[in-house]
Structure formats: structure tokens, C-alpha cells
Amino acid sequence: MNTTADIDSSVSRESAAGNFSDTAQFLTFSLGQETLGLNILTIKEIIEYGRLTAVPQMPRFIEGVINLRGRVVPVVNLALRMGKSPTPPQKRTCIVIIEVANGSNSHDVGVVVDSVSEVLDIPANRIEPAPAFGARLRTDFIRGMAKVGDAFVILVNADKVLSIDEMASIASGINGHLELAEGSAN
What is the CATH number of the domain that holds 67? Predict the structure, then answer.
């Protein structure tokens, strides 16, 4: 359902415009008690949660991979990736397939969210920059904050949260620690 966000007009606008166009659409979803949003242009599809294949020795936030029409797509638990406690899968839990930029290439990554809400049209001049402190999330993961009604929608920077290079670095660090632990046991 497309709606126009009820944005608080008392918020400063100039510094928040960043690289957003005049108005952008964001798919809103929930993780625990928080509402987050992803730019709709990065989203390829939303699928039912399930049929994940676990991959050994991956970071805890990588739940596994799925077969998406013959392609292997990694699936990230967004709550864990953002340093939050995950909630067990429920009836409305789903996987949002996102196209993530990686240099001149792009890759599909699935993210597990508790539930998808709606698509909001948010004017760029109504988006505040990520807070320097006080948020319970890594600030480089936040693209901005939009006030909708009496609450904020945290706009996620998908390219940072789902950086293929950073996730690979974390995974190789885990594998390196496992190899060191196995080597010292011998």
C-alpha cells in the first residue's frame, strides 16, 4: 500500500537531503519494536521465510543461503547484523531480497525481517541525518531518520549493512580464529 508519510514539518532539512532525490519511496518493516525502511529501488522482491540451507563457519548473522530461481542467495538476519536481539520466526517473518552494490558489481542478498509494513513516500527535505549517538544501531548503517507521525523510521543504508566485503572479512576472521583454535589443540 502506497501512502504519503505524515512527516513532522518542524525538522531541519538542509543537512539531511544527502543523496536522496526530491521524494523517495521506502519499504517499511519491523525488527522487534522498531520501524525501519529501505529505499524501494534496492528491493527486488519479498518472499516467504523458510527453506534456508545453513553454511558452516559463517558469522552468526548469516542464517544461510536460499535457492532463488537457480541462484544461491545469502540470507542475513538483519536484527543480528545490526547488533539487536533477533526474534524467532513468526507467521509474518519474511525475506526481503535486496540488490547490494559492490564496486562496479551488484549482488542479491536476502534479509530477514519480522514483518513488512508499507511503502512510504518520504520527501528528502524531511529526512534527518543519522544521529551521532544515542541510537542502538551502528550509525554507518543508518542513512537517515524520518519522522512519521509520532515515531521515527530508521532509514537503513543497505550498501553498508550488507557490504559484501565487510561480511567476507568478518567470515574470514571467524574462520581464521577457528583454524587458530584447531591448530593450538593439536
Answer: 2.40.50.180
